[in-house]
Amino acid sequence: MRRASPLPAPATGELHAWATIKSLLPYLWAWRGRVSLALVCLIAAKVANVSVPIIFKHVIDALSITREQALIVVPAALLLVYGVLRFSTSAFTELREILFARVTQQAVRNISLEVFRHLHALSLRFHLERQTGGLTRDIERGTRSIGTLISYTLYSILPTLVEIALVIGILLKNYDVRFALITAVTLTLYIVFTVVVTNWRTALRRHANELDSAANSRAIDSLLNYETVKYFNNEAFEARRYDEQLHRYIDAQIRNQYSLSALNTGQALIIALGVTAMMWLAADGVARGSMSIGDIVLVNAFMIQLYIPLNFLGVLYREIRQSLTDIERMFGLLHTEREVEDSPDAKALPAGPATLSFDAVDFAYDPRRAVLQEVSFSVPPGSTVAVVGQSGAGKSTLARLIYRFYDVSGGVVRINGHDIRTLTQDSLRHAVGIVPQDTVLFNDSIYYNILYGRPEASREEVEAAARAAQLHEFIARLPDGYDTKVGERGLKLSGGEKQRVAIARALLKNPPILIFDEATSALDSHTEKAIQAQLEAAARGRTALVIAHRLSTVMNADEILVMDAGRVIERGTHEALLQADGAYARLWAMQQREEAEAESETQVQAQTETAP
Question: What would the pLDDT profile of 26-75 be if each residue is shown by its tens digit?
Fold first, then answer.
């Protein structure tokens, strides 16, 4: 399968408008009953609106007779019809909006939910290569623009086009063909000018969006790394980098405003020439006696009715084009291919004990550099296999392959003999629990973050998992207890506290396969020893894979694999590997010396502090 990547941005001045609209239509067609009724109301409103000037013409012509005859000549029914038509225009318009309100909101909801689910279905590679700030800004603008596009198209542009067609038809039927010709030419010039200039402005808008996303990404990236910025005293440096991006964005926005002013001026000139020509022709008709005062009022009313929405039509068109630009980026995310996807005949992994095995597995994030080479091992139910080695040996990659964040380049990963590529990802991940090396928590309570392991668990089960992770006593000392907020990415907790939350979360999930990826790396020696027994108890009876740097944490494993440069170079029990006097024995001796030196330094420091 191809590597997941966003759709390429279109060339300058080119917008996949019809493709974007085509992608949007199914979400509206799902409510075709409401859409049809809304369109009927739209047409009824415009027929009533166009009829108002016609009735008004007859009233004016009737009132043109002598004042004494006026009350007799003007029928009361004509005035009543005038009032009814005025009300009908507003009534049908409001009814149309009532009918269509649910369509718009449900379309926005369904698309937003689909994009959200799709992003979660994309590979880890996609999320590692994208910047969160730019991604969220694309989604935010896209969902907002869907409502804008639907609203402007069906509430403004389509009604205006219906009204234009009705007006031109009436002018052709009842008046000199030149009236309809002037109207058509004015509209054509206006639309062509607007389209040409707006297409030029689209490139400016897209460029401004890219700079806006880049500035937002830079700000969020800096704030997420708040502590690092403080460590290196680089506040001024970060502000300068952010300001550089803002400066480019402001320049793009100023160019955008200049182009907008040019567009507005041209549109106003075209409208002014068209209105002047129409009124000149109408005034000439009245002077020659071929038209009545009511006729010139009718033509003027038609022009006013067309002028107001037509003048706004340019603004609407620009907004729609800009909305299409924003929606295009969001649909680009929706159309991003999944790097890892369930096969059509994928089946669920049966519940129960699980045997995990790697069979000659090869893997590379980049084809130019292998990460794993011919890795083979098996972990039966009830057994614990540990993987140790220096950083960069490929240990953590094993966990990512088990979860199918990536698919292997060669060989097979199996559970109970099933190639995991033939299993549904949902059932596979349901069977695996992990305590990751880098624990990231939700900006919510401690209780929520533990409960996340199994959302349907009871409070008693959550507290039991916290006790097993040696976390309950710490939580009990907090003023808000389990309701304590952990902050963005868990920044209010220490590294060890976050890792214990992750351990409790994995224990609560209670899966047949447990992975501990440097699960105690952020704990001090005392806490590590206290929790090690709990981890071993949690792993008992399960298939456990322990990825570790400290060898003291894996001494009791049934088998220890020593990895180096993506290969398994040694395997055996702790005692057997020490006797082999190979890489494991050297690593053990080095860590023992480091621990002895650290303990000696601690004792010296303690003696110094207690000395009189």
Answer: 777 777 778 788 888 888 888 888 888 888 777 777 666 545 454 554 56
- Which of 510, 531, 564 terminates a domain? The answer is 510
Q: Domain range holding 388?
A: 356-431+542-612
pLDDT, tens only, 364-402: 888 888 889 999 999 998 889 999 988 777 888 898 899
Among residues 568, 586, 569, the alpha carbon closest in space to that of 397 is found at: 568
Side-chain-side CA neighbours of 217 within 13 Å: the count stands at 15
- How many structural domains is the chain composed of? 3
Same domain assignment for residues 48 and 75 = yes
Shared domain check, 260 and 364: no
CA-angle at 286, arms to 282 and 292, nearest 5°: 100
496 plus 564 within the same structural domain: no
How far is residue 564 CA from its own chain's centroid?
39
In a domain, 49, yes or no: yes
Q: Is residue 171 part of a domain?
A: yes
Listed residue (94, 7, 11) closest to 48, CA to CA: 94
- Which of 426, 402, 400, 427 is closest to 413 using CA atoms? 402
Contacts of 364 (CB under 8 A, 6+ apart): 370, 371, 372, 409
CA dist., res. 208 & res. 25, Å (int): 28
* pTM for the structure as a whole: 0.62
Q: Return the exposure string of 181-220: e unless at least 16 CB atoms fall within 10 Å of the residue's CB, then b.
A: ebbeebbebbeebbeebbeebbbbbbbbbbbbbbbbbbbb
In 3D, which of 18, 104, 7 has the Cα closest to residue 329?
7
Yes or no: say if 154 and 38 are a contact pair by the CB < 8 Å rule: yes
Distances (CA, A) of 574 to 437, 490, 564: 23, 36, 17
Supply the pLDDT for residue 531: 66
Max intra-chain CA distance, the chain:
126
**Which of 116-125, 223-232, 257-266 bottoms out in mean pLDDT, i.e. has the lowest?**
116-125
Please give the average per-residue pLDDT across 522-532, as a whole number. 66
